């Protein structure tokens, strides 16, 4: 038996000093030899734990085998039969806690870099095949409305269209993609890749209606009355949370949603060529320790900030951000102020934020999240100068749909109650999945929920 | 794309645009707004609806040329189209039979007050309207507003038309008279709404204002439009835009509206520079 190769092939990345000044993608993707070398490390174990570790059950060993045999078209086909958005997933899925974590080689510290291979296959398809010709499905005669065009909505729409249902997506913003467009920055997920995958979903026959705010323009009940046989809600968690401490409404204090929307969706980094401005800070503080905080900090740096701080109330071990993103941020020169929590923001005579007062924190007993609870160190207050603050403390579902849909049950934090396995809500003919059900989570878990709901909607439509 | 069915110049720099938006027209109510974006590089700006026609499938908005977007919009005419038109957004103005309602319109906000006054009148209220502008040339829709009002008072800051002075003066006189006023609706520039609210406060008459902070998405997603009302942070796009004027932190609103003054100036200069180059090239006979 050949000796196990436990050396993961590194993916080339732009150098920190260079990339901190541009918006181009940080990770550059494998070259063919690198992809081949990584694929050859896969031992094709019979148990296939990776597949179970994937929320959409991609046939991972099979696509790796096809890649290894240089049968790229087959690799693409295998991937796309389960995952309509591989270019996106290959970039932003937390593989380290999913498929790669359970890889047989992980026990020896050499898990296959499945995410990088997935990205390689998706990028190969885009460069070599264009959009795959899609065989139109036999029409079922049923109509489904999908609300929201983020990861959950796109996945549900693609699966339902492939099953022959007439699908219309209603999107509130002027482009499809949801958080993939407004939230995740260009340097981590190029917008052309997102739009390529949106185009693929549209090529399956999905009609995408932009500028359509469901709950205002149309209600769920009106959709059902107007001939839709089922509705899938994938409106995500779009309502930003603030800290609630004094001075939070000073000029220059943004929610991460606003800051990222200005920069990514409205392209404020190209102001004044694009009309939407964003305040360019010299000293920027980002409050929070998740991926959105890392994205905000790295955007602020690229806009030209001299110093960018991550202010987080616990220690690095408790940070919810992906390890890789924390490392990227550190390499680029983001300063981590850990065990630090804002007490108040101070402004100048024009209401502009100019200082931030913080408490030092220490960790106490574990709280309900299982992480050690941060406790204020008495008398530890200190101030430092800032001119832009970005609050990245998380988001909750936008209440618009729940408020306008009688019979839809909501739970903690404004989430919509839905069955975990089927996505069924308490309202007949209405399914939901993704962040609207779970609160802010990951792209792939939203896709998994979209997939499960699509299967259940299909079952319902066939029996009705 | 959303077509401009009709453009009309109400004053040299205040324009009316009637957009083709049949779905929005079915749902629009007084006090609600739309968000528009002219093209790919445009910003999203909110505009309160002035009128709608379900049969025609149209929404009418009125805006004054102030920044890049409103100036760029002013280069478009009947038959042109814009990239995005989203609505109706925000909560509608509360319309019911209050008794006597005093509607105060500052500047081009008369366009927004019109459908509110009309709906209040239809509901059986006595409507007393006050229409104010800086000068005679900035006044429009006087007759239209008179038609839906039991009484109309017109003021200009410089006295070039109607009564000389600010809208707060006749407002105060009405409140001081024996005529009982049950509600005041004041819409216009923030500073005018602030002083109308200060005027009515001693009389304890509920005063509704329509706030116009900077917005991005207009659907509650970003929090750019946060305002402080009664000490609580609210999002004007989804919780408003109408609020109790006596509860609004006006100084915060006025300060937040100035967040991008520098950028707005830079953007406008760039745009006007481009316009200048274009018209020079045109006069030289180039394309």
Describe this structure in words.
The complex is a heterodimer of chains A (464) and B (287). In chain A, strand 8 (307-311), helix 14 and strand 9 (335-337) form a beta-alpha-beta unit. In chain A, 34% of the residues lie in helices and 16% in strands. In chain A, 52% of the residues are buried. Chain A contains 17 helices and 16 strands. Chain A is globular, with a radius of gyration of 23 Å. The longest helix of chain A has 20 residues, at 443-462. Chain B has helices spanning 22-27, 68-73, 110-122, 142-147, 168-176, 190-200, 236-239, 250-256, 261-283; strands at 2-11, 14-20, 33-37, 45-53, 58-64, 81-82, 84-89, 100-106, 126-133, 151-156, 163-164, 183-187, 207-210, 226-229, 232-235, 242-244. With 287 residues, chain B is an alpha/beta fold. Chain B contains 9 helices and 16 strands. Classes of the chains: A alpha/beta (464), B alpha/beta (287).
């Amino acid at each position: 038996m050949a000796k196990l190769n436990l050396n993961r092939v590194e993916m080339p990345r732009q150098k920190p000093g260079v990339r901190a000044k541009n918006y181009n993608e940080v990770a550059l993707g494998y070259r063919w030899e690198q992809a081949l070398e990584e694929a050859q490390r896969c031992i094709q174990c019979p148990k296939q734990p990776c597949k179970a570790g994937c929320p959409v059950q991609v046939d991972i060993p099979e696509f790796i085998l096809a890649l290894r045999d240089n049968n790229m078209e087959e690799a693409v086909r295998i991937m796309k039969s389960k995952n309509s958005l591989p270019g996106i997933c290959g970039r932003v899925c937390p593989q380290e806690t999913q498929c790669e974590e359970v890889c047989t080689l992980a026990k020896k510290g050499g898990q296959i870099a499945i995410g990088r291979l997935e990205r390689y296959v998706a990028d190969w398809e885009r460069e070599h095949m264009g959009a795959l010709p899609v065989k139109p499905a036999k029409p079922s005669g049923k109509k489904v409305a999908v609300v929201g065009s983020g990861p959950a909505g796109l996945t549900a729409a693609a699966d339902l269209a492939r099953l022959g249902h007439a699908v219309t997506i209603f999107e509130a913003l002027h482009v499809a993609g949801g958080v993939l467009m407004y939230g995740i920055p260009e340097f981590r997920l190029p917008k052309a890749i997102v739009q390529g995958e949106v185009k693929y979903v549209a090529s399956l026959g999905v009609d995408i209606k932009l500028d359509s705010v469901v709950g205002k323009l149309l209600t769920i009940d009106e959709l059902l009355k107007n001939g839709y046989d089922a509705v899938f809600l994938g409106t995500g968690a779009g309502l930003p949370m603030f800290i609630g401490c004094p001075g939070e409404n000073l000029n220059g204090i943004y929610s991460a949603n606003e800051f990222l929307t200005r920069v990514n969706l409205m392209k404020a980094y190209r102001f004044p060529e694009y009309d939407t401005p964003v305040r360019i800070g010299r000293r920027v503080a980002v409050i929070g320790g998740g991926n959105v905080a890392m994205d905000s900090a790295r955007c602020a740096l690229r806009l030209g900030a001299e110093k960018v701080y991550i202010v987080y109330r616990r220690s690095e071990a408790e940070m919810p951000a992906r390890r890789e993103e924390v490392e990227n941020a550190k390499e680029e020169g983001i300063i981590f102020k850990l065990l630090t929590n804002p007490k108040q923001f101070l402004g100048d005579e024009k209401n502009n934020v100019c200082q931030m007062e913080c408490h030092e924190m220490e960790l106490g007993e574990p709280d309900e999240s299982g992480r050690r609870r941060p406790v204020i160190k008495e008398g530890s207050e200190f101030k430092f100068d800032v001119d832009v603050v970005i609050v990245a403390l998380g988001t909750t579902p936008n209440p618009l749909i729940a408020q306008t849909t009688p019979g839809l049950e909501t739970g903690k934090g404004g989430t919509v109650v839905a069955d975990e396995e089927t996505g069924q809500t308490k309202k007949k003919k209405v399914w939901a999945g993704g962040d609207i059900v779970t609160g802010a989570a990951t792209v792939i878990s939203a896709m998994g929920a979209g997939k499960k709901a699509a299967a259940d909607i299909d079952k319902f439509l066939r029996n009705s | 794309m959303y077509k401009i069915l009709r453009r009309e110049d109400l004053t040299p720099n205040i324009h009316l645009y009637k957009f083709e938006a049949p779905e929005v027209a079915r749902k629009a109510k007084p006090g609600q707004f739309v968000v528009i974006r002219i093209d790919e590089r445009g910003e999203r700006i909110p505009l309160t609806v002035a009128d709608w026609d379900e049969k025609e499938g149209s929404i009418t908005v009125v805006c004054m040329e102030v920044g890049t977007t409103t100036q760029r919009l002013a280069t478009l005419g009947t038959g042109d189209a814009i990239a995005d038109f989203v609505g109706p957004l925000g909560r509608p103005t509360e319309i019911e039979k209050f008794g006597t309602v005093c509607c105060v319109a500052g500047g081009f906000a008369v366009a927004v007050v019109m459908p509110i006054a009309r709906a209040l009148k239809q509901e059986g209220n006595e409507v007393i309207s006050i229409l104010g502008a800086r000068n005679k040339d900035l006044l429009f829709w006087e007759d239209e507003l008179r038609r839906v009002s039991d009484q109309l008072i017109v003021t200009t800051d410089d006295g070039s038309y109607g009564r000389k002075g600010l809208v707060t003066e006749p407002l105060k006189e009405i409140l001081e008279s024996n005529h009982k006023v049950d509600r005041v609706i004041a819409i216009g520039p923030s500073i005018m709404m602030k002083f109308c609210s200060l005027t009515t406060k001693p009389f304890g008459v509920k005063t509704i204002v329509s706030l116009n902070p900077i917005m991005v998405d207009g659907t509650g997603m970003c929090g750019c439009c946060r305002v402080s009302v009664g000490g609580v942070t609210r999002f004007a796009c989804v919780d408003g835009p109408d609020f109790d004027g006596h509860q609004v932190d006006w100084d915060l609103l006025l300060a937040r509206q100035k967040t991008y003054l520098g950028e707005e100036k830079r953007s406008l200069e760039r745009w006007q520079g481009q316009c200048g180059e274009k018209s020079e090239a045109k006069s030289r006979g180039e394309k």
